[in-house]
Specification:
This protein is an alpha/beta fold. The chain has helices at 3-10, 15-25, 46-49, 99-106, 135-144, 157-174, 178-197, and strands spanning 35-38, 54-58, 67-68, 82-88, 107-118, 147-154, 209-216. The longest helix is centred in the C-terminal third of the chain and has 20 residues, at 178-197. The two termini are 35 Å apart.
């Protein structure tokens, strides 16, 4: 995939999804290592990551899924089978949080788990949207389930603000309100100017979501 194709494919992505992709691309994952994508869904990041040995698993038959199973009830692979695991935007959709301990079981010692999970986001993919985890919970849960956090990155404040405004105005914009569309375009320009001229401070307690790299102890 060349750069022009990449820009075209991501043009209409949300800020949060773009941040997720940048985070994963910067992890330096060995393309020859054996990985597992838990809750892969439509696997939107896979073409960009270009990982040669990535197994996809989810609860239903999305395109490109290798294994179908109920992620709340355990994952049918042998212990210490994988060199890395991805869990992108899946934790909020699992009623049971045992999947983190299950990821630890599946990883080889010293291998890494990569998580992206939203925080300030409206309910989506009904009826399978159950949780919004705080950074306090995620830090405690990962530690209790045998992981050492190496990187914990909140979504940028301006990205969060822009996402929230977009969600609040979505109804009027979708219903072809000219005033709402004009105001939203003005707001986007203001956001661009703010980004260029005001220092950005990243916060754990008010953010669009979290991106985490954790190593199995």
């Amino acid at each position: 995939m060349n750069n022009n194709e990449t820009r075209s494919d991501t043009k209409n992505w949300s800020n949060w999804r773009k941040e997720n992709l940048r985070f994963l691309l910067n992890r330096g994952i060995d393309k020859d290592s054996l990985g597992l994508d838990i809750g892969a869904g439509d696997a939107v990041f896979h073409p960009f990551l270009q990982l040669d040995r990535l197994v996809s698993i989810d609860f239903t038959n999305y395109s490109g899924i290798n294994v179908i199973c109920d992620l709340n009830l355990g994952i049918p692979f042998k212990s210490e089978s994988f060199d890395f695991i991805l869990m992108t935007n899946v934790l909020e959709h699992l009623y049971d949080d045992r999947v983190i301990a299950e990821a630890n079981r599946l990883l080889k010692k010293g291998s890494r788990l990569y998580i992206t999970v939203p925080f300030l986001l409206d309910v989506h993919q009904k009826p399978y949207d159950y949780h919004r985890y705080t950074y306090l919970y995620l830090e405690k849960k990962l530690s209790e389930d045998g992981f050492e956090i190496e990187k914990f990155t909140p979504s940028g404040d301006f990205g969060t603000f822009q996402t929230l405004v977009e969600h609040y105005y979505r109804y009027k914009i979708d219903n072809k309100s000219l005033v709402a569309k004009i105001l939203w375009q003005v707001q986007k320009i203001i956001n661009i100017l703010l980004k260029k001229n005001v220092p950005v401070h990243f916060r754990n307690d008010f953010t669009g979501g979290y991106m985490i790299q954790a190593k199995k102890k």
